[in-house]
Specification:
The protein is mostly beta strands and about 350 residues long. It is built from no helices and 32 strands.
Length: about 350
């Protein structure tokens, strides 16, 4: 357990981890094969950001680390054997407001950035100039872009915004998307085109997961739903509400038929696809169905014995506070892959846990 974790990302084999703690520095630890924070050893500090570092994404193909900050900057970090540390590579991006999300494509050849200014950027490396150049996707959202995600082939991205919309946008870049693919959206050869649009009448879209043509959308205070995009017709083919019972804010696909959602219920929820239908399979935290045995104390008195809160408000004798006996004691803020077949979750309290799926 550390004091606070606002973002986390592991390298490919899980031997190193990068952590944001709510400060402007990013800390890199050697895990030494342990899942306990107390056993980890700090080996590097990434220091270029001038305000709170908000996002990290460690690409497993190239080993490059992508970081974004409230200071409006993006950096790509590459390890230098000569200097025995990670060095920043310049990203040419004219952004005026905070970075809210940033992700690599699977190959590590380009990244996508979502910002408070409603803008979306796609970045690629320019060998000629020796920096990462970005191209903007303009005027698609009317409010802050909260989350962005590449499709597996990298030719399209999904974005969700505070304006209540989820969009599928083309992001083809000729120099890096040369490989032919028969996967959904594999024929996309445009940039910045809106291929599909999903909007909600009530609620706030917090996050999403994109895999092939399936999009999971997480709605704060409402529901978790899945929508299937039709690549040929460029529209939403179907939509299915999975649950209205749990409040999810982050999620990740695990292969073609599994999706893990986390958030305000402080436990990971595993959804599975069977016969073209998605449904809740199980809650990974066994303590979710149990409740902690405790009573809140004020000084030496039992808080619940103090029935009178205000002169005209009474607490019923049967009133009892319940708290689920989950490992996390606060909202799960981050969900990232760890090694082979495992996922890591972290919360605002600094707790880090690992789950086999």
């Amino acid at each position: 357990m550390t004091d606070k974790v606002t973002a986390i990302s592991f390298n490919k084999d899980g031997s190193q981890v990068a952590i944001c703690t709510g400060e402007k520095e990013i800390l890199i630890y050697e895990t030494k094969g342990s899942k306990k924070f107390a056993d980890w050893e700090q080996i590097h500090i990434l220091k270029e950001h001038t305000q709170k570092a908000a996002v990290i994404d460690w690409n497993h193909e190239t080993g490059l680390i992508l970081t974004g900050s409230y200071d409006r900057s993006i950096f790509v970090w590459k390890y230098s054997d000569e200097h025995a540390k990670y060095l920043p590579q310049m990203v040419n991006m004219d952004e005026k407001l905070a970075i809210l999300d940033a992700k690599w494509n699977r190959q590590g050849t380009k990244f996508v950035v979502g910002t408070s200014s409603k803008r979306i950027y796609v970045g690629t490396y320019s060998a000629k100039h020796g920096w990462w150049a970005t191209e903007e996707i303009k005027k698609e959202h009317k409010s802050s872009v909260l989350a962005v995600e590449f499709s597996p082939n990298g030719r399209v991205i999904a974005s969700v915004s505070f304006d209540g919309t989820c969009k599928i946008l083309s992001a083809y870049m000729k120099d890096v998307d040369e490989e032919e693919t028969k996967t959904p959206f594999g024929d996309v050869t445009t940039f910045g085109e809106c291929l599909a649009n999903l909007s909600v009448n009530f609620g706030l879209i917090m996050s999403l997961g994109l895999h092939q043509e399936i999009v999971f959308v997480m709605l704060l205070m409402m529901e978790l739903s899945t929508s299937e995009m039709c690549p040929q017709e460029r529209k939403v083919k179907s939509s299915n509400i999975l649950t209205k019972d749990y409040l999810s804010s982050k999620g990740r696909f695990i292969g073609d038929d599994k999706f893990l959602a986390v958030g305000y219920d402080k436990a990971p929820f595993l959804f599975k696809k069977s016969a073209d239908k998605w449904s809740l399979d199980k809650v990974l935290d066994k303590g979710f169905d149990k409740f902690k045995d405790f009573s809140a104390k004020v000084g030496s008195k039992d808080f619940f014995a103090l029935r009178e809160v205000e002169s005209d408000i009474k607490i019923d004798d049967k009133f009892k506070m319940k708290e689920r006996d989950t490992k996390h004691e606060n909202t799960i803020q981050y969900l990232v892959p760890y090694g082979s077949g495992e996922l890591c979750t972290c919360d605002d309290n600094g707790n880090i846990f690992f789950w086999k799926v």
